[in-house]
Design goal:
Largest sheet: 6 strands, parallel
Strand order of the largest sheet: 4-5-6-7-8-9
Number of strands: 9
Order of helices and strands: HHHHHHEHEHEEHEHEHHEHEHHEHH
Shape: globular
Mean pLDDT: 84
Structural class: alpha/beta
Helix content: 40-55%
Distance between the termini: 114 Å
Radius of gyration: 38 Å
Strand content: 5-15%
Number of helices: 17
């Protein structure tokens, strides 16, 4: 019986390389037949999945084909039948290993859809429930928290804005970006073509706090702005966070050097709408537990590091002390005072501080996720809450109307990074809607045209 050169090489290589179990048996002097059995019966060596060593791949330096070639010159020293058996066991083990590794690789490779991150995740709502979208408020309303660049608007711009307001049933927009001095007068003149539809709040610049007489000068400027048509004072969030006095120190919200300004507002009978701090989550670690992780991921400048900003509770506490220290001035805390997530705490403050009111600008997502408790809360404090939206977008008002006026379940909020949760309707009584929409504003803001709300 003659063997071809290739056959001899195959059998030689099987003997000299074989499997690790066969090699150990050969080195230990185990008879040839038992060596073959050892190679076939060794589960650890037959399967690469059970080994801690890297799995060989076709063409890699550890793949046995190189050993086959290296061993081809060694003498054949065992019968042909044993060589064929050894070769069959070795090749079979390698084939099974290749199949197992391929299966694992296929299982580990993620589908394209599994690569979506939380930033991109936008599931479609499959819940089928009654829907009652609302595009026009049930009653005329005052938007107590609007922003318009009045001095830059053309007459056509103003006309288009008023047309959209009519579609929403917005009777009056309060422009909180009114400015002061000449800019205030120019803005009022620019929007005078629609009498009664726009009300301006003046603004104060805190540059120069620390100079003698700053408070009295600021109060005098406010009085002049009111004579020129301002119906209130708006304070931006720089006070308490970014504004500095002449010595470079942070100006606290309740800094006594500002007292003449607040007292003048009370004397003039105008409200002060004040934005203090930001959502409390901006001060918390930006990690997987932060409820506003997505917003801070998309808007990282909103993160408030402790080495640059005082704590949230310190700043918001200064605001509350300001209200307490000036009981003859009415204050409207913008954005529910950033306590929409803790209405119980906010309610206790309203109980304690009778000259404190709250606006709803940019926080309806807090009410829409707690419909039962928020409904009870708004009914209880219906005399202290004012409708407001903040940055103007006509379609976004529709979410406010739907939250307040319907009992709808599980509908979208208009800005996902503010609220990744769904909204629920509060179905507020008509008498509560009227107070929130316009009656409270009529009591607080001088000069509003009451005829716009008749009927």
């Amino acid at each position: 019986m003659s063997w071809s050169t290739a056959t001899v090489r195959r059998h030689r290589s099987a003997f000299h390389t074989g499997t690790p179990a066969l090699a150990r048996a050969r080195e230990s002097g185990v008879p040839q037949r038992r060596r073959v059995a050892a190679a076939a019966a060794s589960p650890r060596d037959a399967s690469p999945l059970a080994s801690s060593a890297p799995t060989p791949t076709l063409g890699s330096p550890t793949f046995p084909t190189r050993s086959f070639r290296a061993a081809s010159a060694r003498p054949l020293s065992f019968p042909a039948a044993s060589a064929r058996a050894v070769s069959f066991v070795a090749v079979s083990a390698l084939a099974l290993s290749f199949v197992a590794v391929s299966a694992l690789a296929a299982a580990a490779a993620p589908l394209a859809a599994q690569d979506v991150t939380v930033v991109d995740y936008e599931p479609r709502n499959t819940l089928v429930v009654p829907e009652n979208p609302v595009t026009r408020a049930k009653f005329p309303f005052v938007d107590i928290h609007g922003h318009q660049r009045a001095t830059r608007m053309s007459a056509a711009d103003v006309d288009r804005l008023v047309a959209e307001m009519d579609e929403l049933n917005m009777a009056v927009m309060v422009n909180l970006s009114g400015g002061s001095g000449i800019s205030l007068a120019d803005g009022l003149a620019n929007m005078a073509g629609h009498p009664g539809r726009f009300v301006f709040f003046a603004n104060t610049n805190f540059f120069g706090v620390g100079e003698p007489g700053w408070g009295e000068e600021a109060a005098a400027q406010l009085e002049e702005d009111v004579r020129n048509g301002a119906a209130g004072l708006k304070i931006f969030k720089g006070l308490g966070m970014a504004d500095r006095d002449t010595d470079g120190n942070r100006i606290a919200v309740d800094d006594p050097r500002l007292a003449p300004l607040w007292d003048k507002a009370g004397e003039l009978g105008i409200p002060v709408l004040i934005h203090t701090a930001d959502p409390a989550e901006f001060w918390q670690p930006h990690d997987r537990h932060n409820e506003r992780w997505l917003e801070l991921r998309l808007r990282p400048r909103r993160i408030r590091p402790p080495d640059r900003f005082p704590p949230f509770d310190e700043i918001i506490g200064e605001q509350h002390d300001l209200f307490r220290n000036h009981p003859n001035t009415n204050f409207i805390a913008a954005h529910l005072g950033w306590l929409g997530h803790d209405l119980g705490r906010l309610g206790r403050l309203l109980d304690e501080i009778p000259n404190m009111y709250v606006g709803l600008g940019a926080v309806v997502y807090e009410l829409g996720r707690q419909p039962r408790f928020a409904r009870q809360w708004l009914i209880r404090y219906q005399d202290r809450v004012l409708m407001g939206k903040d940055s103007y977008n006509q379609e976004e008002f529709h979410t406010y109307f739907r939250v307040f006026e319907t009992a709808d379940d599980y509908f979208d909020y208009y800005r996902r990074y503010h609220a990744f949760w769904q909204m629920y309707g509060l179905d507020l009584p008509d008498e509560v809607l009227r107070k929130i929409y316009y009656e409270n504003a009529l009591k607080l803001v001088p000069g509003l045209d009451a005829s716009l709300f008749e009927g």
